[in-house]
Each structure stands twice: as structure tokens, then as C-alpha cells.
Amino acid sequence: MEFIAHRGSADRVPENSFAGIHFTACYQIKQIECDVSVASDGTAVIFHDKCLQRMTGDPRSVSSLAGHELTQIPLVSHWPGPTQYIPLAKDWIREAARYGLFVHLEIKVHDQQVERAVEAALEALDESGLLPSQVRVSSFSLDAIQLIRCRRPGLGLGLAADKLSGVATETLETLGLTSIHLDIRFLDPLAVELAADRGLKVCVYTVHSARQLASLPVNLIDSVFTDDPVALLDEMKTLKIFK
Fold first, then answer.
1. Which of 5, 89, 117, 197 has its CA 20 to 30 A from that of 99?
2. In this model, does residue 243 exceed pLDDT 60?
3. How many domains does the chain have?
4. 35 lies in some domain
5. Nearest to 11 by CA among 20, 2, 3
6. How many Cα neighbours within 13 Å face the side chain of 41?
């Protein structure tokens, strides 16, 4: 089982920041996840929410500002260290690649057109220089995944969903997915087994405690998204869930 630093280890550093890359790499966690949103000028930035409020205190939306304006906005931080700012996606991905991290790139569609969100993310990916073998692109938007499959058939793809039962069997069979990303709150052993039987890597989000995995067939779970991969790994070793 692999541990994926969700939003760049969001319980340890400001989420979706350069600091998240450095923290994750420092503790030898091999995989990291980030969210890609689109600025008003079509530039991809690393940010989760539609609105800036939660992470910056600014009431405006991400899509109301240009990329260069967003990079001047500091992220709220409860930790010591240099002030972190909203990163351009191409720069953040390039930095993750420099540290040898495998990147899970989740495309957030918000209110904009799917094509606009996908094109911005793919452009940032191209400009970053990250190899296809170092990244998996995911989204909750089925339309986004279908479009990426058409535009970049060589990319590994992950479909995010609340529950496996909410995804049509035909979708799982025709999209050529590498992985399915399922919510731990609604997950049961049967769903894990069904997804694994279809040849999908089962990735579970967002895991805060090893006890959440206790009732699941962990041998069939490929990876877990967690805001604190270091603490979760230590807890799982203590409970002998993970060696």
C-alpha cells in the first residue's frame, strides 16, 4: 500500500503549496496529490476550492483573477516557516518532479467549461516537463476524464467518486482507467473487491486514521490519500496493519 500526500500533506503545511512538496520529500513519501484550478486568463494554478476564502481570507473566486495575481496571494498558515503563496501549476509540478515524486493531478472543473479546465491542466503538465510515467490525472468530472483520454491516450487516469455504485459498469470498462478513487466514509469490503476484480487500482480518500481501514481488505487497496502520511504510516506500523 502506498501513501499519497493529500494536497501535499495538508495537516503539516499549507495545502497545495511548495512547502508540501518539500515536507513530503523530506519524509520520503513517494507520492503527492494536488488540485488544479483555472485562473481568469486560462492559467492553471494549484488550488482546491472555487473560492479563495478558506485558504487565503480573500472572498473572491479563483476564476476572477489572472494567474500572476493569484501567485501574489499568501496562503493561510498555522505553521512556522516562510510564507507560502498560490503556485502556478507548471511550477509546482516541476518542483515535485525535481524531488522525484509521483504526482496525482486532480482537475477541478468548478463552473468553467470542462474543455477549458482540461486544456489548462494539460498545458501546465507539458510546460512542467513531467514524464507521463510520473503522473496520474484524475477528476470527479467524467467529462473531463473522457476528454483527457481523447487528448492524451498515454496518460494514466483515475476517476474519483463518492461510491463505486455511483459509477456505471460500462464507464469503468470503456474509459481505460488506471485507478478508481473512493471515499473512505462510504467504502465497504465488497466495493474494494469489485473494483480490484475489474483490474483497477483502488485508491481511498481521505484517510485520517488507520482504524478507518480496519474493516477493509487492505491487501486489495493500492494506496490511500492522507493529509498526514507520516503520522498515518507510523500508526499503521504500530497497529501492524502495515509493515
1. 117
2. no
3. 1
4. yes
5. 20
6. 9
**What value does the mean pLDDT take over residues 31-55?**
98
- The SS3 assignment for 8 reads coil
**pTM, entire model:** 0.96
CATH number, domain containing residue 35: 3.20.20.190
Number of H helices, E strands in the chain: 9, 9
Q: What are the cell numbers at 108?
A: 477541478
**What mean pLDDT, rounded, does the chain reach?**
96
Distance CA 117, CA 102 (A): 21
Decide if 243 is inside a domain.
no
- Domain membership of residue 134 as a residue range: 2-238
Query: What is d(CA 38, CA 107) in angstroms, rounded to the nearest whole number?
Result: 9
d(CA 234, CA 243) in angstroms, rounded, equals 10
Q: Do the domain assignments include residue 205?
A: yes
Cβ contact 139:159 at 8 Å: yes
pLDDT for the residue 28: 97
Residue 192 lies in a domain: yes
211-241 per-position pLDDT tens digit: 999 999 999 999 999 999 999 999 998 887 7
Q: Which of residues 170 and 112 earns the better pLDDT score?
A: 170
Alpha-helix residue ranges (DSSP H) falling in the chain = 18-26, 53-56, 67-70, 89-98, 114-128, 142-151, 169-174, 189-197, 229-238
Instruction: Tell me how far apart the alpha carbons of residues 170 and 35 are, in angstroms, rounded to a whole number.
Output: 27
Q: What is the pLDDT of residue 165?
A: 95
